[in-house]
Specification:
This protein has 170 residues and is α+β, with helices and mostly antiparallel strands. It has a single domain, classed as Nuclear Transport Factor 2, Chain: A. The chain is 34% helix and 42% strand. The longest helix is centred in the N-terminal third of the chain and has 19 residues. The chain is globular, with a radius of gyration of 19 Å.
Length: 170
C-alpha cells in the first residue's frame, strides 16, 4: 500500500505540473483569450468602444503601469479612455496604435481543485503614435500581463500589468 500511495502522489504532482503549463496556440483557451485581447485593444485604441471595455473588466479591476501608475477600479480606467475619446472627431485618426508582437503571446491556465477559474496571459506589444505630420511613428515596446477570470461564464480581466516600456529605435 505504501508503494501505491507514492505512485499516486507522483501522479498527482505530474498532473499538477502539466495542468499549469502554457497552453499552445492551437488550444481553445489560448485562442479565446487571444481574440479577447484583440477586442480589448481594438475597443481602446481604434473605435473607442466604451461599452465593450466596461464588459471586459471586473468591477474591482486594477491597472498597474510602470510609467503612469495605478488605476483602481473598472470605472476609473474606462473613464480615462472615454475622456481621451471625447477629444476625437469621427474623422480623426486615433493618436496611438497597438501592435501585438507575433508569437509573443502566452497563456497559462489557473485551476482550483481541478476546475478552470482563470488564466494568465502575457505578451509583448509595440505602440505607434500619430505625429504632427499625420503619420504614425514608433513609440514604446512593452510587456503586458493580464489576469483573466471566469465571471459567470464570461472571461474578464481582473488585473492588468503594463511594464518594461522601452523606446523603440527607428
Amino acid at each position: 500500500m505504501r508503494l501505491l500511495g507514492k505512485i499516486a502522489l507522483l501522479g498527482f504532482i505530474i498532473f499538477s505540473i502539466d495542468a499549469n503549463t502554457q497552453v499552445t496556440a492551437k488550444n481553445d483557451l489560448f485562442n479565446t483569450l487571444k481574440t479577447k485581447d484583440s477586442i480589448l485593444f481594438d475597443a481602446a485604441f481604434n473605435n473607442c468602444g466604451i461599452q465593450v471595455l466596461k464588459e471586459m473588466f471586473t468591477e474591482d479591476f486594477e491597472f498597474y503601469h510602470d510609467k503612469v501608475g495605478i488605476t483602481e477600479g473598472r470605472d476609473a480606467f474606462v473613464r480615462n479612455i472615454e475622456n481621451g475619446c471625447k477629444n476625437l472627431s469621427d474623422n480623426d485618426l486615433q493618436p496611438a496604435k497597438r501592435i501585438l508582437i507575433p508569437n509573443s503571446l502566452e497563456v497559462y491556465p489557473m485551476y482550483a481543485q481541478g476546475v478552470l477559474y482563470g488564466a494568465i496571459q502575457h505578451g509583448v506589444h509595440t505602440f505607434e503614435f500619430l505625429n504632427e505630420n499625420g503619420r504614425y511613428e514608433k513609440g514604446d515596446i512593452a510587456k503586458f500581463t493580464h489576469v483573466w477570470v471566469l465571471d459567470r461564464g464570461n472571461w474578464k480581466i481582473k488585473r492588468e500589468l503594463s511594464y518594461n516600456h522601452e523606446e523603440q529605435l527607428n
